[in-house]
Amino acid sequence: MLEIPKPTLGRLPLYYRSLLAASEAGLEIISSAELGESAGVDSAQVRKDLTYFGQFGRPGVGYNVSNLLMALEQILGLRNPNEAVLVGAGKLGMAICNYPGFARYGLKIVALFDVDPNKIGQQVDGLEVFPLERLESIVKKLGIQIGIITTPAEAAQRIAKMLISAGVRAIWNFAPVNLKVPPEIILRNEDLAVGLATLSHYLSAEHRTKA
After folding, report:
1. Which end of the chain offers a freer environment for a tag, N or C, measured as fewer CB atoms within 10 Å?
2. For the whole model, what pTM was predicted?
3. Helix, strand and coil in the chain, % to nearest 5
4. Domain shared by 32 and 136, yes or no
């Protein structure tokens, strides 16, 4: 089986987003150069990325927007909606829960969990906040495959173990900690502090260069 480079996989959602915009604008054809703009790559890289999954488009013409949209939906698994639970009903958790853009990518958050008695029982965008002790039973009952962690760092590893024990196969971690999970578990870390530190570094470097 051909192994797809991670950078290629990372660019596919960007191509998909451009195709969505083109479709909503009523465009029927899009060029590889236009797709590349969304991902910061040239047209040759776009063609190379898409070649891993089949032959799309026509030389000198471009890609049929509708056909490529459907193909990427299949490749990215967006045709099969994925249900997820979110643990940590704080400000970040609420922002993620209320974000409407996930629906386009097949993600639906179906339950929230927290340990704060003041939050348990509350309704957030039509979803109830459940006590953490009900996490495993609800995840198993609903057959949830994705867990989203937005807890403080010290609680994240324990939450990950609970999710895995309940049958979750993928974890999207927003807690500022490196989780340890079995190799068969798909783990995606979104460390906001690291992102901020990276931005600060480049800003400082730019300031030193101009000084």
Report:
1. N
2. 0.73
3. 50, 20, 30
4. no
